[in-house]
Amino acid sequence: MVDMDDQGVGGLVTHSGSLRWNIRGFSRLVEDKYWSETFTVNGCKWRILIYPKGNKVHGHLSLYLEVAEPERLPVGWRIEAKVCLAIINQYVPSLSAIRVTPFHVFLAEEKDWGLKAFKSLDEVTDCSRGLLVNDTITVEAKVDIYKKNETHAWYKESLENLTGEEEELEMRLEELRSKRTKLISDWGALMSESEEVKSSYVAEQKKIIEVEEQMKKSEEGRARSDTTWARLKDLLS
């Protein structure tokens, strides 16, 4: 079995169970969905549910763990559990596609957990990736059932952690707001200074143009004077 132990609610697990299911002839499956055989954990039957072509999602394989025969459970039943689902990489097990929920509540109206877009079909059917070998894929499910009436400790710890994270984020947000205000202020000053520089540049350019015009007129006047002087010299000679 691949290592699917990850992010559980420590110390509260009372029962565990798992099932590995080899699905042969994957490319020839024609039904929308298929179920595995059942396995029992603490008196409750479980089974894997797979949609080879996706559960109302295009281009993905959908995979779930569900409570089998829920009608046989007591009225108002409730199961708190950690669930791990995997498509096994048959070449390198450590590269298996694994999804985990550390805490899920199974109820009569919500008897399964899984993902519609568990894995891209392009990746599943790419034989070089090791998920489909000899037209066979292997899926695995593991469920850890928590002790009833004790998950409040996990909730409390999670709430405290979230509160701490929220306070830290609030402080960070205030820092970012302060930086944003300063940046806006600096930008305004920079834009104001930029406008002054621009106005000064335009004024200087205008002066340069005026001087150039005056020089041009002066040169034209000098040229006319030179021409007139040359004519006078011709008349006097």
TrEMBL record:
<dbReference type="InterPro" id="IPR008974">
    <property type="entry name" value="TRAF-like"/>
</dbReference>
<feature type="coiled-coil region">
    <location>
        <begin position="159"/>
        <end position="186"/>
    </location>
</feature>
<keyword id="KW-0175">Coiled coil</keyword>
<protein>
    <submittedName>
        <fullName>Ubiquitin carboxyl-terminal hydrolase 12-like isoform X2</fullName>
    </submittedName>
</protein>
<dbReference type="InterPro" id="IPR002083">
    <property type="entry name" value="MATH/TRAF_dom"/>
</dbReference>
<dbReference type="Pfam" id="PF22486">
    <property type="entry name" value="MATH_2"/>
</dbReference>
<dbReference type="InterPro" id="IPR050804">
    <property type="entry name" value="MCC"/>
</dbReference>
<feature type="domain" description="MATH">
    <location>
        <begin position="16"/>
        <end position="143"/>
    </location>
</feature>
